[in-house]
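User: Could you go from structure to sequence for me? I need the amino acid at each position, not a summary. Structure tokens:
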């Protein structure tokens, strides 16, 4: 099964299994990863599932949709590698991806 590694703001690494078809947000929430709040439950309307995709994975993840880009404007400290974790769906190709969790969610 594909897996993900989340890096907490304090540097702690959290490794979780993430089945294909599940969003990165769902994988985080189901495994109790702190820092991914997901207030809207994955509807792309809260920006509290913000994460920084490790730059080496950006090409594989692909570009965000217009809706996601609009919502990312509400994320705290958004960067070029920011994504909303509810909008990134797991595939085998994303096995091993690393996501940095921001110090706070907007
Ligand atoms: Fe709300 Fe992702 S969970 S935007």
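Assistant: Here is the amino acid at each position, in order:
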């Amino acid at each position: 099964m594909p897996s993900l590694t989340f890096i907490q703001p304090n540097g702690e690494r959290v490794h979780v299994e993430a089945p294909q078809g599940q969003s990165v947000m769902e994988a985080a929430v189901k495994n109790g990863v702190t820092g991914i709040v997901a207030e809207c439950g994955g509807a792309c309307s809260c920006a509290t599932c913000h994460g920084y995709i490790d730059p080496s994975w950006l090409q594989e993840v692909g570009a965000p949709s217009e809706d996601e880009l609009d919502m990312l404007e509400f994320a705290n400290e958004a960067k070029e590698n920011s994504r909303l974790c509810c909008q990134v769906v797991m595939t085998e190709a994303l096995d091993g991806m690393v996501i940095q969790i921001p110090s706070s969610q907007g």
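One structural detail worth keeping in mind: Residues 25, 38-40, 42-49, 71, 84, 86 surround FE2/S2 (inorganic) cluster (CB under 6 Å).
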